[in-house]
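With this grant's support, we have paired protein sequences with backbone structure tokens. One protein thus recorded is set out beneath this paragraph:

_____
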Amino acid sequence: MKIAMLARNANLYSHRRLKEAAEARGHTLDILNTLRCTVHIASHRPQVFYNGAPIAAYDAVIPRIGASITNYGLAILRQFEMSGIWSLNESVAIGRSRDKLRSLQILAKHGLGLPLTAYANDPKQAEEIIRAVKGPPVVIKLLEGTQGIGVVLAETMSSAKSVIEAFRGANVNILVQEFIKEADGEDIRALVVGGKVVASMKRRGAAHEFRSNLHRGGSAEVIRITPEERSTAVRAARRMGLNVCGVDMLRSNHGPVIMEVNSSPGLEGIETATGKDIAGQIIDFIVANGKNGSTKTKGRG
């Protein structure tokens, strides 16, 4: 099988592992720098060029699109899909997951557990939305933030109002969420591949840090999740339309609540914590399901 990966950095652990896993199974995997891809739009002839030349035929594409180039990366991925190339995660699903507000609206519609969340445009409504999520304290998040960047814990009404007013004054879109105190700086990452949780880990934030992201100095350990947590992760992946994703959850007094569904989950932390060959399982899923022309949306919608 011939596989393309859309990724800017071929040396990242996750990208190296996927390439190694594919080649160990006798497949070819080419890592294409997303920013060096261009789209040529012509009637009945959708094409992607790489470094100025038409790309070779591929059986499947693995999108590992950085958050900072989401719009450009999705445009390139849509062109692959319109050419009939199967995508591990489709452009429509990735777009849903990258829009924090939209993803929460979709999950809430289907009854999945979430922290209380409020969204408003007018900074004069700051106190109203803080009280709507039973705060203070509250967690304030940039809609475009990743890896814990742009996430602030405001512990008093005055500090929360100041942060909200500052962000909105700069025309930055934010969400305000309930602070789940009982989570105690820990969260769960469940890795879903093909509708199954294949690995899970518990992440703890660094000292005096409420964010548990490994990129911010957090630590991880293997954990056995509950049936309810497993079901929540699987349902979240299905509702978002993702074949592979990391579902981040907190343990609250009223059950698991979803913080985020990540369409390009890193593999280093969870492979290290669990000792599992997650990259190999992803490649096996692609081989079993990646048939040319079987893309659901073909870039539409």
